[in-house]
Amino acid sequence: MTGQKASNELRVAIAGLGSIGSKIATALDQGIEGLVLSAVAVRDAAKHQPFLKSLRHPPLVLPIEQLGDVADIVVECAPSSQLRAIVEPAVKRGKAAVVVSVGGLLDNFDLVDLARANGGRIMVPTGALIGLDAVNAAAVGTIHSVKMVTRKPMDGLKGAPFIVQNNIDIDHLREPLKLFEGTAREAAKGFPANLNVAVALSLAGVGPDRTQVEIWADPTVTRNVHRIEVEADSARFSMAIENIPSENPKTGLITALSVIALLRKQRATLSVGT
């Protein structure tokens, strides 16, 4: 069955089996209507063998450039540096790619044109945010401004290029410290593992150069906290979410669940939300 599909099943391949990819693989193996896990790509196959053997229907293990050969949807769950190597072969074949490292998409935006030219699709899950459907709807009219304020525990920010380049010590903070204020595009460069949420928000609304972002290192919080304020001609709304970190402190538990929800929509008889 692996690599093959029933006439109406969508084959899904996953690039990366970290905290996000492994949860998506497990959900597919347990059963999502109309979908089957066909293949995975991992840097160290031996490391992931125990997990793969635990699945009821172990998928093929392939190089990332071959995932599009055996899948209708390729899910990118790898470091953003690998985004192009994963997405380009898939969309060239007219397949769909689900992009988790959406911050990396800004530097590879020609992939959208490549997908359009070849009949492929690039799908960005809601991820660690709420309300992207409301932002999408408001963008059909006119959005005047979008601002996001993110507060994270120190463990979730360590190693970010912006912090390293500016030699900022966040290990001994006793009160919240504003690290950054600027556009979503700038935030994605300075905090590539943390600010996929800001880029997703920007793509749903007014773009990465008009979406304003603040980033705080906050010793008073244990969750990744995001607050969004939108002013539009159709509505004024604010949203807040507090995400519990996964095994990877830079990633919220809800991110993997968001991808699973997106995959479920692909073949669901009843689909709720825009």
Automatic annotation (TrEMBL):
Keywords: NAD, NADP, Oxidoreductase, Pyridine nucleotide biosynthesis. The active site is at 226. The keyword NADP applies. Residues 174-260 form the Aspartate dehydrogenase domain. It holds the Pfam family NAD_binding_3. GO terms for molecular function: aspartate dehydrogenase [NAD(P)+] activity; NAD binding; NADP binding; oxidoreductase activity, acting on the CH-NH2 group of donors, NAD or NADP as acceptor. One of its GO terms (biological process) is NAD+ biosynthetic process. Residues 16-125 form the Aspartate/homoserine dehydrogenase NAD-binding domain. InterPro entries: Asp/hSer_DH_NAD-bd (IPR005106), Asp_DH (IPR002811), Asp_DH_prok (IPR020626), L-Asp_DH (IPR011182), NAD(P)-bd_dom_sf (IPR036291). It catalyses: L-aspartate + NADP(+) + H2O = oxaloacetate + NH4(+) + NADPH + H(+); L-aspartate + NAD(+) + H2O = oxaloacetate + NH4(+) + NADH + H(+). Pathway: Cofactor biosynthesis; NAD(+) biosynthesis; iminoaspartate from L-aspartate (dehydrogenase route): step 1/1. Its EC number is 1.4.1.21. It is an enzyme of class 1 (oxidoreductase). The iminoaspartate product is unstable in aqueous solution and can decompose to oxaloacetate and ammonia. Specifically catalyzes the NAD or NADP-dependent dehydrogenation of L-aspartate to iminoaspartate. Belongs to the L-aspartate dehydrogenase family. This is L-aspartate dehydrogenase. It comes from Bradyrhizobium sp. LLZ17. The gene is nadX.
